What does this fold into?
Amino acid sequence: MGFLDSYQSLVSRHEAALSLVRVGEEDRSSFPAESVWEDLVKLYETGLHPAIALAVIHRGRVVLNRTIGHLLNHPAGDAVGDVATPDTLFSLFSASKIVSSMVLHSLVEDGSLSLDDRVVEYLPGFGRHGKDAIAIRHLLNHTAGIPDMPEGVDIEAAVAAGGLDVTLLYDLEPKHAPGVNAAYHPMTGWFLLGEIVRQATGKDLREQLQARFLEPLGFEGLSYGVREADLGRVARHAITGLPVPGFMGEIFERTVGATLDHAVDVSNRREFLTGLVPSVNVVGTPLQTARFMQMLLAGGELGGVRVLRPETIQRATTTVTRGQLDSTFGFPMRYGLGPMMGGNRFSLFGLGTRGAYGHLGLSAVVVYADPRRDLAVAFLNTGKTMAAPGMLQWAWCLQRIVIAASLVR
It folds into this structure.
């Protein structure tokens, strides 16, 4: 193929990609939305994600609310099916933890729970092997010392049954005393938190989220799972990129209780998409996800409706673990009481984002708020990989958002 043919092929691919772009509600502002979006289209063209969505709220205005790609992905790798739109529902995966943690903080705010309540006060059998000192705050900031799922746990069966039997976690032996060391807990701590909420209030996390946040704010496109009638609106997930490096696959399976392939397969099933899995199955539209973060950015208020006190959000985002290598994945991480925290030299939200807070979701979903730049972001996508050249473009897209917001006067 000659140079001209190669160039025409690239142009055709780019035009095909642009034909899949859908734009929702957006406000005009000085934020350079088009240049940010151009970089995201380049990410789509890497083939890493069958669908990508980006919603950005800057200084209280929706400056980006766009999608590109398809809801489905054929096993052979060809994107098929309906085109994703801003009304498409995307799984947040572990970014669900930012939502779950705020439900917990709402309960702490009204006195239903205390951060220093010990798990055994609600689940007496949990205290085996010296776990009686583990408190709610240790589960929220990943310092409980029990990051690994019990051997032999069937995640697929747990999802099908509507939840994990938490008594299976009672025999876990902690790797260290609570509060000593941070090690990301993808699943264990959040199953326990969900059961604590149910024991303390008689309602599950989904009911509490609905009553405390969604109904007051008028949100209809954000919850744990979806209604049966909305299954067709959910973007499905696909394994993409290079094979999972052996050590990363081992860590994933040990802490999640399934291989990456199995976990992605389960995440596309009706039981997962309609169920309640506290750590990983919040599903939402891009804009309502970003608006949830905007609510936190604004001190617990959105559209004149207050759902949290400013001091509650401040406590959740300033009571953080010391800077250290996370013992699960080996990255330099800092955790608040639920959120992952940004940093200047290492950050999941882009360099120079110390003070930002949010969460990463499998494997390139990023949801965060940046008080310094008055920025709320939902960067949602459906390709699931642990390694791929396209991740460099993904990282640049995150940095590009930060740069764009920093340059606005």
Remarks:
- The chain has a mean pLDDT of 95.
- The two ends are 47 Å apart (CA to CA).
